[in-house]
Structure formats: structure tokens, C-alpha cells
Design goal:
The chain has 455 residues and is an alpha/beta fold. It has 13 helices and 22 strands. Helix 3 runs antiparallel to helix 4 and helix 3 packs across helix 6. The protein starts with a strand and ends with a helix.
């Protein structure tokens, strides 16, 4: 065989797997047809957070008056922001290339497809490998409605030549609510059209309600319980039809209606590799596909689609195959964040999930952050603990508010370790902080059981 391991995909999962395997002494090849670092580095988490931070500076300029500062807020320079973002992304992509080269992996700037179970076509070159890893990630989807090609998806949002003044976003998942906050903070009239009664389906209900309130407080115009039906062009503008004959004329229609594993045209059928719903590669607990020597990691498996999960899977697989230390990662209690405005972070079970397992004690705190008692900004923080009543273990922690991702990262350690409510209670808080609320909540808000959660 030409390689001990060949990795298809140079995103977070693929690069980590290739780099660690090469470090263990394996002969490794890795192919990427688009850009190194994958979605997260180039058209996902990293540039998105930079745009979120751009919006925050505008809000801070307004808020400064409450603290005695007079700051004149000028117009925002979108082109300057995008140029700065592009420089940072180029720097990060270069780091990914250097990491692979430094580890001794052979890099191919090409598309790789299966010829058979051990053979790949890599940019026209026939290559064989003892083991192969599929790490091609995912891509955004447009809805199947007339004129859908007149709208953009998240990949396109990072390369807009100018800042739209009127934006209509279709969807209510994390991408939709994050970009709603970004465009609104940068000055656009922003509409959010979605079919659920509340945004962020699958998240804790209290968080979903609090986020809807926060979006409205920010000035985002919500259109819940409705579906898009068509997009039409009106010169350079767009007309979105939705619901029962409603329309919005807008500068930009942005579809954030889901992502799909990137498995098309990989030739998986040539290798006998099965896929499931939405084209996701099926894997077992050891990340093996239906071909035991072919593995799949990251978003292409459509399990927990988060960058840290993808990198952890890649690292664990490389260690297991070549490091003489077989191991796996747990997909239980994986913390995550939504960089909405304000942000959300969560770890563990929602109230509804906990109640399905047995009675749960719920503790909820809502308050105005200290900063905004002076700024006057209508922004609230919500914190929530979900506690298994029988064991008193904290099985869920949820937060909406400034610094939520930074705070929940630390709380996640306690939840993963199985800390009880008593452990939280005897921890001294840091004052004055928002985070101390997690260790000072003493009064139970409610008890929830399966029947009540179902209601």
C-alpha cells in the first residue's frame, strides 16, 4: 500500500487525525480540495465569532454613555472588517498546513474519491491505503422552494461585498440566530422567519423563551410558526413569500435551514460503505464504517456536529490505530455554545430530557447584569441548573447571557465529574460576578416529572 493511513478531508477532524497518526510513525496522506481547516476555520466558528465581536463593539460604544464616556459611533466599515477577517483566516489556514508538514504527513490539494475499498483517485492519481478515514464534514442546504438559488447560505455570508441594510433570515437554529444578531448589531433591519414557535429547537425551553425575548429586545423582527414558500427577484432586491400569503421585500435572503453531510460524489458505493439519513456515514462505537478498515469522523457522521468533538474523535482514532493506546470519546455531557446576542451555553440534559429519566429539581435565576444597571440596555441573563432528584447530581446547566460560553466551560467540568447540588452549594462564589449565581441558587424553582415535561 502507498500509505498506512489516508485521510479524506483537511478540516478539524481530518487534520488532527492525520497529524497525530504521523506523529506515531504512520505513513500518512491527507487530501483537501477546498481549504485547510475546514468549515470551522474558514466559513464557520472562527470568522463568525469575529463578526459577532464586531457587532459587540458597536453596542459597547452606545453603552459607554452610562459610565460617563462620550463616544461618537460612526458608520461601520464592512469592507475593512471582511479584509481583517480574511487576513486572520489566511493565517490560520497556513498554520494547519504547517502542522501537517511538520508531522511528516503528505499533503494533497485535491479531491479524493473511492475507486474501491483500498484505492482512491486523488486529483487523478491512483493511491492505495491500508486504512482510510472519511472526514469531509458537511455543507449547508437550501430549502426545496421556487427561487431558492436567489438566496445565500452561511458559506456565502463571509464574502458579501457590501453590508445589506435589510436582511431576512430563514431558520431558527444556531446559525440563524447568530447571524440575526450579527446583522442587527451592524445596523441592518433583520427579520427571522421560522417554522417553530420558538428558536433553537432541541435546546432547553427556558433558554428558547429567553432567546426569543432577547432577539426582540435587540430589534430583530420575529416571524414564528411559518414556512417560506418562494423567493423572487425584484431587480437587485429579493421578495420572500412565506406563511399564508405574506411577503417581505429585502436586500438579502439568507437560508439557515440545516446542514447535510458531504458524502456526494465520494464514490462510497464503490467501497461498500453505507450511509443513513441525509447521507451520513454510518459508524459503530469505534468509528468504523461498514468496511472495517475505513473510518469516519466529524460532521460527516452527523452525530454531534461540533468542532471539539471532531478533533477529539480524530485524535482518539489516531491513538487507537497507531499509538498503542486504544480509546474512544464520550458523546455524553458535551458542552456547546450559541454565539447569539447575548450568547447561550449549555451542558448536559435539558429540563425535558431530565424529567423523562425521573423527577428533577429545577433552579432558575433571571437578573439584569451589573453592567446594564448603568447602561440601561434591556438585556437579561438566565441561569439554570437541572438536578436529578434521586441522586442530587447536577445533570444539566444552561445559561443565556454575557460570557455564557466562558462560564459554562468551567461548569462543564463539574457536570462531567458528577458533581451534586451540594457540591455547587458549598463552593464559594466570586463576587461580584454573574458566574457566582451558579453556586448561590438555593431556592428550588420547581420539580418536574415526565408527565409535566410532556405538557
Amino acid at each position: 500500500m502507498d500509505f498506512d493511513l489516508f485521510v479524506i478531508g483537511g478540516g478539524s477532524a481530518g487534520v488532527r487525525c492525520a497529524r497525530i497518526a504521523a506523529g506515531h510513525g504512520a505513513k500518512v496522506g491527507v487530501a483537501e480540495e477546498r481549504f485547510w481547516g475546514g468549515t470551522c476555520v474558514n466559513i464557520g466558528c472562527v470568522p463568525k465569532k469575529l463578526l459577532v465581536q464586531a457587532g459587540e463593539y458597536g453596542a459597547w460604544a452606545e453603552d459607554a454613555a452610562g459610565f460617563g464616556w462620550t463616544i461618537r459611533k460612526g458608520p461601520h466599515d464592512w469592507a475593512k472588517l471582511i479584509a481583517a477577517k480574511d487576513r486572520e483566516i489566511a493565517r490560520l489556514e497556513g498554520i494547519y498546513r504547517k502542522l501537517l508538514a511538520g508531522a511528516g504527513a503528505q499533503v494533497f490539494d485535491a479531491r479524493a474519491t473511492f475507486i474501491d475499498a483500498h484505492t482512491l483517485d486523488v486529483g487523478g492519481q491512483r493511491i492505495t491505503a491500508e486504512r482510510i478515514v472519511i472526514a469531509t464534514g458537511g455543507h449547508p442546504e437550501r430549502p426545496a422552494i421556487p427561487g431558492a438559488d436567489l438566496g445565500i447560505v452561511s458559506d456565502d455570508a463571509f464574502y458579501l461585498e457590501r453590508m445589506p441594510q435589510h436582511v431576512t433570515i430563514v431558520g431558527s437554529g444556531y446559525i440563524a440566530v447568530e447571524f440575526a444578531g450579527i446583522f442587527r448589531a451592524l445596523g441592518a433591519e433583520t427579520h427571522l422567519v421560522y417554522r417553530q414557535p420558538l428558536p433553537l429547537r432541541g435546546f432547553d425551553h427556558d433558554l428558547r423563551e429567553a432567546l426569543a425575548e432577547a432577539l426582540q429586545a435587540q430589534g430583530v423582527i420575529l416571524h414564528p410558526n411559518t414556512r417560506p414558500t418562494a423567493v423572487a427577484a425584484d431587480g437587485e432586491r429579493r421578495i420572500l413569500s412565506f406563511g399564508e400569503g405574506e411577503t417581505i421585500t429585502t436586500d438579502l435572503v439568507f437560508f439557515a435551514t440545516g446542514r447535510r453531510p458531504a458524502t456526494e460524489r465520494l464514490g462510497l458505493e464503490q467501497a461498500g460503505i453505507r450511509t443513513g439519513a441525509a447521507g451520513a456515514v454510518l459508524v459503530d462505537d469505534h468509528l468504523r464504517t461498514t468496511q472495517p478498515h475505513v473510518y469516519a469522523i466529524g460532521d460527516v457522521t452527523n452525530r454531534v456536529n461540533l468542532t471539539p468533538v471532531a478533533t477529539a474523535e480524530g485524535h482518539a482514532l489516531a491513538d487507537s490505530l497507531f499509538g498503542k493506546t486504544p480509546r474512544s470519546i464520550s458523546l455524553v455531557n458535551v458542552p456547546s455554545a450559541v454565539f447569539s446576542t447575548p450568547p447561550i451555553a449549555t451542558v448536559g440534559l435539558t429540563e425535558e430530557q431530565a424529567a423523562a429519566c425521573g423527577p428533577a429539581d429545577v433552579y432558575v435565576a433571571r437578573f439584569t447584569p451589573m453592567r446594564h444597571t448603568l447602561t440601561g440596555r434591556a438585556r437579561k441573563t438566565l441561569m439554570k441548573l437541572v438536578v436529578d432528584q434521586a441522586t442530587q447530581k447536577v445533570v444539566g446547566a444552561h445559561m443565556l447571557g454575557e460570557d455564557a460560553p466562558e462560564i459554562i466551560q468551567g461548569i462543564a467540568i463539574a457536570v462531567v465529574m458528577g458533581a451534586t447540588k451540594a457540591d455547587f452549594d458549598r463552593t464559594i462564589g466570586i463576587h461580584p460576578t454573574a458566574a457566582e449565581e451558579f453556586v448561590t441558587m438555593r431556592t428550588r424553582t420547581r420539580v418536574v416529572e415526565a408527565a409535566r415535561a410532556a405538557e
